[in-house]
Write a structure and sequence with these properties.
Blueprint lengths: L7 H9 L5 H19 L2 E4 L1 H16 L11 E5 L26 H8 L3 E6 L28 H9 L4 E6 L5 H6 L3 E4 L19 E6 L2 H11 L23 E5 L9 H16 L3 E5 L7 H23 L6 H10 L4 H21 L5 E5 L12 E3 L5 E3 H7 L2 H6 L3 E8 L5 E7 L5 H14 L9
Parallel strand pairs: 2-3, 2-4, 7-8, 7-9
Antiparallel strand pairs: 1-3, 4-6, 5-6, 5-12, 9-13, 10-11, 12-13
Length: 456
Amino acid sequence: MQPYEMTLASAAEAVRARRLSPVELVDSVLARIDEVEADLGAYVSVTADRARRAAERAEREAADGRPLSPVHGTAVALKDLIDVAGLPTTASSRVRAGHTAAADSAVAERLAEAGTALVGKAHTHEFAYGLTTPQTRNAWDRDRVAGGSSGGSAVAVASGTATFALGTDTGGSIRVPAALNGVVGLKPTFGLVPLRGVTPLSWSLDHVGPITRTVRDAALALSALAPGWAAEADDAPEPGGSAPLKGLRVGVPRNYFFDRVDADVEAAVRRATERLVELGATPVDVEIPMERYVQAAHWGLMVPEAAAYHEPNLRSDPDLYGPDVRALLEAGTAVTAADHLRAQRARTMMARAWARLFTGADLVAAPTVPVTAVRAGQEEVAWPDGTIEGVADAYVRLCAPANLTGGPALTLPVGRDRRGLPIGMQLIGAPGRDGVLLRAGEAYERAEPGAGRAAP
């Protein structure tokens, strides 16, 4: 196994044990970038010299016997909405031509303090306002979309061109590309990971979180991003033993999450849910509340908030935006204050209703996206009932509820469809219960072979 193929947990442990040098790891990742990046298009820019300097510093710290963070000496990619002092934050947009960040974002500061090496800035759908990231190709099938908006981050992790990466999630932008590329994505509880220095899409819905190759890796990354966070605070069982999930109540949705879902996706997620039950969990039927209002509430918040942030540039340089993003931003200027307030009210009611749901279940298990990676350029999904749905609408539909409630949501790979494309299962929890999801996901992962392998 080459160092770039190692999971975050195994690489960090090897660095701590002095079996692997951070320089060796970073050099392996950079060599992997040289090998596959031209074919994948995951990166806006590769920061090789900066990464090597950080790796050399991490190696000296390890040699000095200093206490090391759980991610020390590993190679990270940051979605190019995240500021790093002295580097451009392009947001994959012509609007940001010539931009250079004056200061580090909070998460960049924390990862630098944790001893990571930044190998590059990863592509996003322009300003995170889309679900395909057209600059980037899927790690498993180059003719298919990477997902978005954190498509570059997910493809970097899946292909071994980063040990882990950060993305942002406003309506599934971590979870969608993670699911489509067969990796793990965590949208933490709203506010757990700071947003300072991250270009916003929607202030009230945005989250920053990790994309990794295993659930265990996601927990390690979260510990570096939110140093005060500790999984031990959650009263869920630890993975291990013959019934590691005994006492955990898994909500199985009766509605919404399995409506208009590809048959292969539904079958894989239901099998994975049964596996959780085999590991000791108790299945509980749940009714998803206020399902008919999800899309209206989500768009009623996101669209005007995005338009408000971009209003100056939309007035001065509208032609610098891509046509899809420009159309969405212009639509946002037509949303009234009353519409935005109604969306806020619906979000509050929805959060309360989901809180009641979680009095009877510890988490909800559902598909992450209703269909696997579509072909590049495909604009619609046709369902057997005759419904035609836009690709972006399909990909955001099952992810948006967790953005509205602010609770954590974790996607992990649970199989492949008939074409060999990855399928993701989403675990959704109440705010502050990130550890419950991570423990359940890790228990599943331990029971299934092959977790953490990089795409060929």
